[in-house]
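Ticket #4471: structure export looks truncated?
Reporter: QA, pipeline team
Priority: medium

Steps to reproduce: submit the single chain below to the structure queue and open the exported record.
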Amino acid sequence: MRVLGLMSGTSADGVDAVLAEFSGSPAEPKWSLLNLVCTPYPEDLRQTVVNAGQGIRLNSREWLELSESITEVHAQAALACDPSAQAELVGSHGQTVWHRPPHKNHRGASWQILQAPLLAELLKRPVVHDFRAADLALGGQGAPLVPMADAALLGRVGGWRGVLNLGGIANLTLIPPRSGPDRLASVLGWDCGPANSLIDLAVQQISKGKLAFDHDGIIAASGHPHTTTIERWLKEPFFQLPPPKSTGREQFGLADLEQRLEELPKLSTANRVATLTAFSAAVVAQDLDNLRIRNLVGPLELIVAGGGSRNPVLMNELRQRCRGMRLLNSDELGLSAEAREGLAFALLAWWHYLQHPGNAPAITGAKRAAVLGVRADPA
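Actual output as written to the record:
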């Protein structure tokens, strides 16, 4: 079955559209990536999405127009990726603007903006969306949802295998080995903390909007991280939490950045960006170290995807901090770093079609596994 996957992440830079074909067993599918198109948001839309994700107030008309604009860009991406309408089904994550994990004082909730019936009508194909809702209703975090897809798409090797996505947020998947005593263990996964979110916001602030991100890590490469500050930040409550845990721009956004910059000594611009870049690597390394100490789980390799995998400074920081494991770019395994999440949501839509569960209680904390997503058909 050919399926379109649409994904716009925490970085809010646009929509990644993936056309893929799936067959065989849901848990171990045969798959091929047929096309990938990245459609950027117009700058004013990108800025509105970023603002909305940080709690800046919009009136009712602005929310309506925002959801419509987001849906239209998703449609443009889908049509560019699949102009001959090969896909029978579309899976769309929508645009997250707020994520609230479960807490002792409230249940979990998460908002992904998308007018799914409109998208289905524009594309003349059914759209599966709202993937987090069922997991949240079952008491789970509603995220991350990609780990089970990672396990199905990439498969197992002789030891534990890590998959790290460096989008706005760093999220991690750990896939058990194919043999040995751990072969019956559950797939693990969680959000580690900020990846590109703080770095991008800092660069945009420093450049007064002329730069969207630290291209090739050029700014960070000319500076030196402030190690003492990073060590202090790593002691914050979120980074001490064991999985399951999830987060987003609402926690690691502009307000968080401004507080961190105030805490830094009077450093140069390059040193500030270098510190934020090293911090993003450090939160991942600390989580892996803690997991190894608690569960004796240590991946042999770490496959890195997402926009952050294109930042050589961030990748070098990971290599230095994650010693003892081999770091690979997902491109080396035939999976484009930009395609991974779109491909995952294409798979989740296919799983919905097959009524195959898409979440995992060991990852999200939900009461049980469930079929994810809501289907919207063309009018």
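Status: closed, not a bug. The export was complete when the record was re-opened. Leaving a note from the reviewer for reference: Residues 128 and 360 are 19 Å apart (CA to CA).
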